[in-house]
User: What shape does this take?
Amino acid sequence: MGYEAKLRVWRGDDGAGELRDYTVEANEGEVVLDLIHRLQATQAPDLAVRWNCKAGKCGSCSAEVNGRPRLLCMTRLSVFRPEDVITVTPMRTFPVVRDLVTDVSYNYTKAREIPAFAPPPELEPGEYRMQQVDVERSQEFRKCIECFLCQNVCHVIRDHEENKPAFAGPRFLMRIAELEMHPLDVADRRDAAQAEHGLGYCNITKCCTEVCPENIHITDNALIPMKERVADRRYDPVVWLGNKLFRR
Ligand code: SF4
Ligand code: F3S
Ligand code: FES
Assistant: This one.
């Protein structure tokens, strides 16, 4: 049964903006992105919103709904009461382009800073062999749709713009962990994880894991194991002595 939903949407650009109130028709089974589209179609044709698949798979429609990072296309209206005001704002950690669209290029910069998969040079493509357990470990991380909600929620950069140059964020620290745990990756990524990508900034608050729409266990399965690997390297006396004696 249809009803009139109360929508509050942030309108503006990188200079200034404000929350504006709208009343938009809502129908059973709809999601917040349906309301945004109806708002565009009926009252605010210049409203900017990024979306693509409407199926939770492209990672484009990331925003904040009542202050919580979410995919607009996967946030059902049924989680609100008809009388609730639904407030939709752009992701706070990235600069606003216009309305609900943010400039997420920080994330692509961080992606480019991670050295690519480095298989053993003597293996030809097609000769790679690995255990199923290792395939499955990588597969969890590869469900990532690059929505950047985890990057958006992490307090290390959410309230600290100055940390951005030194911190890759959970999505890309997870990528480093994936490669470090990959049995065919011959690069040693532990020193760089700490020194160049800011693993030490993460204090395991797990907010990234809580908002991940793919339910990836970012903290438990990627960040903590990576921290353990870095700690083993730094504090294992045998490793320490080996580094002293044989470091090239
Ligand atoms: Fe989005 Fe999860 Fe990937 Fe982070 S790890 S970018 S929250 S899908
Ligand atoms: Fe940030 Fe996730 Fe660590 S939210 S502090 S990267 S556990
Ligand atoms: Fe693709 Fe929402 S529109 S994830």
Notes: The beta strands are 3-12, 17-26, 62-65, 68-71, 85-89, 96-98, 101-102. The chain has ten helices and seven strands.
